[in-house]
């Protein structure tokens, strides 16, 4: 009887599979890298008016410009990740688990970050931040308020993620860390380059391209994080989605 029971458990394990996440992450990361590379090459290495500042190529492809292809790509990843967290939250709630609320909360936060990416709300902190520091001292003066806001978001996500499956929590926090290394850390590097008179240099171009790459890679990691909590169970001729315990 024990052998029969072990055989059934082995068959059950064979029927259950994790949802692939490395492949989707590789695709998202590759597209992000290509967009950043095209932006840098077209600006630094291609001598053509179409790709120069003010040209159509620069407007649509440069990562330093808002509302263009790289921005749209980041928004798509944000929305995909937010919907993934909401969907997995629905699965947990269907099982009567209160942790589903944490998944929904994280999904809502990703949508808020997406809104900021789309509208550039963080840059509107410029005016109130000028009450605390001079743009001559801190050229990207919005960082004065942006840094504590970023810390608040990180602390909030860490608190909410305590009730999220461990595998997903690891990717979520890693992605959030990557995102803010770019959005705040490398933005600060760019600000310092401006302050030291290198605001028109290739160093600044490299800095803001690295900034956007870190942001995109961070969003990509967060976008696939919900997949780590889902497993596919093959039952007869049907496929059933199951979620990991927290």
UniProtKB/TrEMBL annotation:
Cytoplasm listed as a keyword: no
- Kindly list the residue ranges recorded as spanning the membrane: 25-51, 71-92, 101-120, 140-159, 171-193, 213-230
Asked if the Swiss-Prot or TrEMBL record annotates the protein with the keyword Transmembrane helix, the reply is yes
Going by the UniProt record, its keywords in alphabetical order are: Membrane, Transmembrane, Transmembrane helix
Protein name according to UniProt: DUF998 domain-containing protein
Source organism: Georgenia halophila
Taxonomic path: Bacteria, Bacillati, Actinomycetota, Actinomycetes, Micrococcales
């Amino acid at each position: 009887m024990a052998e029969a029971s072990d055989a059934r458990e082995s068959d059950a394990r064979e029927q259950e599979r994790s949802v692939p996440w490395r492949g989707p992450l590789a695709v998202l990361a590759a597209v992000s890298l290509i967009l950043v590379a095209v932006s840098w090459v077209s600006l630094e290495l291609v001598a053509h008016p179409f790709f120069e500042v003010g040209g159509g190529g620069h407007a649509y492809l440069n990562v330093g410009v808002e509302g263009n292809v790289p921005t749209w790509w980041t928004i798509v990843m944000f929305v995909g990740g937010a919907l993934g967290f909401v969907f997995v939250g629905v699965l947990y709630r269907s099982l009567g688990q209160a942790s589903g609320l944490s998944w929904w909360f994280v999904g809502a936060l990703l949508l808020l970050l997406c809104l900021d990416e789309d509208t550039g709300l963080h840059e509107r902190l410029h005016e109130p931040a000028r009450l605390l520091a001079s743009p001559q001292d801190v050229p990207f003066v919005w960082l004065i308020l942006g840094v504590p806001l970023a810390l608040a978001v990180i602390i909030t996500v860490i608190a909410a993620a305590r009730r999220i499956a461990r595998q997903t929590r690891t990717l979520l926090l890693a992605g959030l860390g990557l995102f803010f290394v770019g959005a705040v850390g490398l933005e600060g590097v760019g600000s310092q380059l401006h302050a030291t008179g290198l605001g028109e240099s290739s160093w600044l171009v490299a800095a803001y391209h690295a900034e956007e790459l870190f942001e995109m890679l961070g969003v990509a990691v967060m976008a696939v994080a919900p997949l780590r909590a889902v497993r596919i169970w093959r039952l007869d001729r049907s496929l059933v989605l199951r979620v990991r315990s927290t």
